[in-house]
Amino acid sequence: MTVFESKITLDQPIEKVYAFLSDLNNHEQLMPENIYNWSSTKDEAKFTIQNMAKLSLKVSARTQNEQIIILPTEDAPFAIEMKWTVLQSGTETLATLIVSAELNMMMKMLASKPLQKLVDHQTSALAKPSF
After folding, report:
1. What is the CATH number of domain 2-125?
2. How confident is the prediction along the chain (131 residues), in pLDDT tens digits per residue?
3. 33 phi, psi to nearest 5 deg
4. Sequence ranges of the domains in the chain
5. Other C-beta atoms within 10 Å of 8: how many?
6. I need a surface site. Which of 49, 62, 75, 111 has the fewest CB within 10 A?
């Protein structure tokens, strides 16, 4: 399993950050420009990654003000899990995105940089929305 991780500290209460992340409708705001054909509900999101693949994701578990686990609902090019965790630190919230992917050597060479870039983009984009 290959793990990609990125963290950000937000000057927001944990309840607001968790509420934002637990609704997949909000995740479009966290996506890079090469994502299109976005459609979503609170629990599911479907989109296309330019020149790569179509993905369908679904929230598989939520733990109030702690974590959200998102898994593919259809065949993905490889097994993948996205996990957002939130942790209160004084008046701030530490948000962490961990993407775990089952990559063979060839896929690891091709997908590692784009996946790390995606994880970093999503956490930095989390600083921009108004909660």
Report:
1. 3.30.530.20
2. 999 999 999 999 999 999 999 999 999 999 999 899 999 999 999 998 877 778 899 999 999 999 999 999 987 777 889 999 999 999 999 999 999 999 999 888 888 898 899 999 999 999 987 66
3. -65, -25
4. 2-125
5. 17
6. 75
